[in-house]
Amino acid sequence: MALTRRCCSAMIIEVYLLCLCFSIRSCENSINDEKPPNIILILTDDQDIELGGMTPMVKTKQLIGDAGMTFTNMFATTPLCCPSRGSILTGNYAHNTRIVNNSLSGNCSSEAWQQGPEQDTFATRVKNHGYKTFYAGKYMNQYGKKGAGGVQHVPPGWDQWHALVGNSVYYNYTLSNNGKAEIHKDDYKTDYLTDVIHTKAMEFLKTHTKLGSDPFMLTLAPPACHQPFTPAPQYASKFSSLQAPRNGSFNKAAGNAKHWLVQQPPNPMANDTIKLIDQYFRNRWRTLLSVDDMVEDIVNFLDDAKILNDTYIFYTSDNGYHLGQFSLPYDKRQPYEFDIRVPLMVRGPGIKGGTVSKVGFSS
Question: Active site residue: 81, 82, 108, 225, which one?
Fold first, then answer.
């Protein structure tokens, strides 16, 4: 039976990503004559909570969080891109997807992944319920490479597929445009990846609302705020007076209570390292401003098309990030709040605006 608004609004407080992944099963006993809700998932890359990663997202917080529910205890199951994304796609932990790192040998977009877990993702589930599906942006770190089947490989469940080959960048990349290579260079007007995702999403929405009556499910995965932290030119000078937060464990030795790896960095950090951390901090926020613009355009379009109230919009990230915590200069991978705590907001039918939930979730 079809997914319905009544079912999904009841589940939202209890189930991450609503009717995505395997929670779809519990919607199947609901009324069949009500059109299922549309679903949009916006999945950023390496966006933290602990270092203020949502601070620059003024419009996103207003249009999704203030208009819906904000979850304050959302955690990545694994603070590393490919294992986390495998869990988000399937609803399974990394020990079940068998993705252990970002390499092909670590099962990131490997043949074993493609023939196994990738056959049963939230995309295949919603597709089976009559949804039109769309993906744009980063998929998995090894996706599209020769050893992973090249750009010709389009995972099951996706009607429109515009996935990045390899890891997050902002210029000079290739997309798999429904199985064919789409090459981009370094012109901001035509190639800045977040804006390309933005444009493709808007084109899909405009076409679908004119021609289609089926519900849709979009997944938009911009590179922000992943390294190399390249902002759009109009945002390149924003936040110029800011520096990375100096509170908590910033530039402090981990001590014997922490695991051995965190004890390795030199302490205190060199001044040049701290300057680089501050530069990275500012540029991470700058890259997110283009995502904020994309969210605003999508919400405004849905509102104008009179389908905003029929659409669930999720906003989250694959993992967090650290910048100087325990004197670790920059990266993720660590089992601490700065690397595992991520944003999660959702708006949609039946969700009261301005709601805050402290219920713990993991991706």
Answer: 81
